[in-house]
């Protein structure tokens, strides 16, 4: 509606920043439910499972919401695995997709009952030596396909560190045979912010082609990476089209080769990006001869995407939506050049105005830090018309907790 996001499920975010302090992360549970349903609907014709890539957002309330709506979990560390379990997941619902980790972490995950995506030949050999055929695993394939919104978030091209190159298939098969390894799934993740269906179809074909060599396979996991709309009106992944095309290939393959496969996806952004807002307050407006600067009470310590990837995050001045349009550099309070937006047109910004950063639900708080000895913000989840504090703001005590010699 017109009022969105000035009101989230009828709740005024400016009021929330007064109650819980600014800056504040706020998530709309209804959006998460809608996005999950969209994905489930698009792949209704196949046996599909969603594993939320929880590096995007590890708030326990969000993980619990995911569990409630039938979304399982993809984790990358023992810490994320533990959070999944605290949120009520059974380890069997969790996949561990590490990247070059200490094999002891893999042991921990396997022993707890999670399924591991093996991402190197040495790890595959260790897995075979350690477990033989007594534990199942999946293999992360690097398909050598370059796609993604930024070089830093492409993960499947030949030069990428992730996975075992599909060109090493003979070596993979040899290792499996040698140790009688029980491979139940093939995995790949192409990258983030992928709009077109074409790269997804390409990697699906590569994995299905590879699957012919694995007669006992149960799972094809195509990873995440669906593009969301950071810029309003920006084209996003057409999920219905993608669903139709991939489902068709998938079903044809299963029929042709007499297989009964599950199709898995691991989206992060698609499920939570749009649901999240970072609300910040304007500390000072500096009218410099070169630029107008809006300095807000946040910075790269809370939302690093603009500085790290040059990502666009749409900004609204929700305190003065009808103000006269002006151009600003929106910057943080960190002693670095932490520019959120350059030469951005906003309704006139005044000291004390609350600004909303959109699409802050994925890789926002999870990528935050305590740089400059600043506190991480609180988080609020609005679900079923009710706002709940789901993480308190940090305090000085939190900053000092790990220091010795106080
Ligand atoms: N699966 C694997 C193995 C991944 O590495 C990732 C993301 C995902 C799934 C989820 O991708 P998504 O659907 O969220 O695009 N911090 C960057 C994104 C890097 C994601 C790393 N891996 C950003 O803020 O753009």
From TrEMBL:
Domain Orn/DAP/Arg decarboxylase 2 N-terminal residue range list: 30-273
Lineage: superkingdom: Bacteria
Species: Dyadobacter fermentans (strain ATCC 700827 / DSM 18053 / CIP 107007 / KCTC 52180 / NS114)
Gene: lysA
Active site: residue positions: 335 (proton donor)
Gene Ontology annotations of biological process type: lysine biosynthetic process via diaminopimelate
Pfam families, A to Z: Orn_Arg_deC_N, Orn_DAP_Arg_deC
Protein name: Diaminopimelate decarboxylase
InterPro entries (alphabetical): Ala_racemase/Decarboxylase_C (IPR009006), DAP_deCOOHase_LysA (IPR002986), De-COase2_C (IPR022643), De-COase2_N (IPR022644), De-COase2_pyr-phos_BS (IPR022653), Orn/DAP/Arg_de-COase (IPR000183), PLP-binding_barrel (IPR029066)
Residues that, per the record, bind pyridoxal 5'-phosphate: 225, 363
E.C. number(s) listed in UniProt: 4.1.1.20
Domain Orn/DAP/Arg decarboxylase 2 C-terminal: 25-361
């Amino acid at each position: 509606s017109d009022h969105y996001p000035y009101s989230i499920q009828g709740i005024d975010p400016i009021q929330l920043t007064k109650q819980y302090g600014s800056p504040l992360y706020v998530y709309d549970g209804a959006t998460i439910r809608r996005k999950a349903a969209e994905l489930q609907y698009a792949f209704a014709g196949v046996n599909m499972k969603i594993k939320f890539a929880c590096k995007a957002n590890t708030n326990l309330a969000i993980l619990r919401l995911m569990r409630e709506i039938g979304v399982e979990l993809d984790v990358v560390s023992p810490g994320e695995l533990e959070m999944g379990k605290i949120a009520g997941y059974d380890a069997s619902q969790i996949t561990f997709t590490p990247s070059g980790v200490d094999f002891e972490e893999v042991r921990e995950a396997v022993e707890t009952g999670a399924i591991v995506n093996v991402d190197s030949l040495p790890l595959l050999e260790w897995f075979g030596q350690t477990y033989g055929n007594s534990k199942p695993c999946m293999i992360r394939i690097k398909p050598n396909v370059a796609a993604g919104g930024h070089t830093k978030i492409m993960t499947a091209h030949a030069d990428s560190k992730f996975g075992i190159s599909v060109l090493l298939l003979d070596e993979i098969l040899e290792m499996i045979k040698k140790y009688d390894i029980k491979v139940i799934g093939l995995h790949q993740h192409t990258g983030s912010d992928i709009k077109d269906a074409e790269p997804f179809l390409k990697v699906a074909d590569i994995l299905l082609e590879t699957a012919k060599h694995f007669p006992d396979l149960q799972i094809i996991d195509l990873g995440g990476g669906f593009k969301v709309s950071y810029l309003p009106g920006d084209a996003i992944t057409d999920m219905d089209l993608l669903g139709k095309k991939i489902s068709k290939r998938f079903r044809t393959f299963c029929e042709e080769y007499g297989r009964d496969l599950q199709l898995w996806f691991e989206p992060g952004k698609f499920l939570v990006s749009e649901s999240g807002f970072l609300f910040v307050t304007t500390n000072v407006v500096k009218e410099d001869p070169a630029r107008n600067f809006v300095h807000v009470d946040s910075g790269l310590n809370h939302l690093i995407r603009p500085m790290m990837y040059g990502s666009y995050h749409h900004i609204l001045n929700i305190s003065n939506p009808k103000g006269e349009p002006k151009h600003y550099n929106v910057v943080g309070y960190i002693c670095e050049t932490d520019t959120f937006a350059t030469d951005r047109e906003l309704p006139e910004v005044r000291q004390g105005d609350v600004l909303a950063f959109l699409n802050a639900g994925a890789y926002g708080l999870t990528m935050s830090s305590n740089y400059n000895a600043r506190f991480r913000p609180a988080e609020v989840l609005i679900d079923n018309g009710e706002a709940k504090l789901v993480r308190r703001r940090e305090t000085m005590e939190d900053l000092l907790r790990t220091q010795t010699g106080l």
